[in-house]
Amino acid sequence: MNELQPLGKLLIFGGVLLLVVGLIFTFWDKIPFIGKLPGDIVWKGKNFTFYFPIVTSILISLIISIILYFFRK
Q1: 42: CB partners within 8 A, 6+ apart
Q2: What is the C-alpha end-to-end distance of the chain, expressed in Å?
Q3: Number of domains the chain is built from
Q4: Which of 6, 41, 47, 60 is the most exposed place for a label (fewest CB within 10 A)?
């Protein structure tokens, strides 16, 4: 085996990860449920808005955990 093979796999994984993150940032506004789920906290004051997407964060964490679970097997 080549001694640089683990480095190559790491670079490929890093590139795919950057691609996915870039696509998410590009199309963030077009994803219909992100930030608008019941349970997301939005408080609008006179001069500011406080926004805490707790349910969206839990859902994204759950999806990522399931994906990583299948990659480990």
Answers
A1: 49, 50, 51, 52
A2: 23
A3: 2
A4: 47
Q: Which of 56, 30, 28, 31 lies closest to 42 in space, CA to CA?
A: 56
Structural domain including 56 reads: 32-73
Per-residue model confidence as pLDDT tens digits over 31-54: 776 677 888 888 899 999 888 888
Dihedral sign of CA atoms 71, 53, 27, 14 in order: negative
pLDDT tens-place string over residues 3-14: 888 888 888 888
Token duo for residue 58: 């839990």
Q: Are residues 19 and 48 in the same domain?
A: no
CB atoms within 10 A of CB 12: 10
Name the DSSP letter for residue 40: -
Same domain, 26 and 39: no
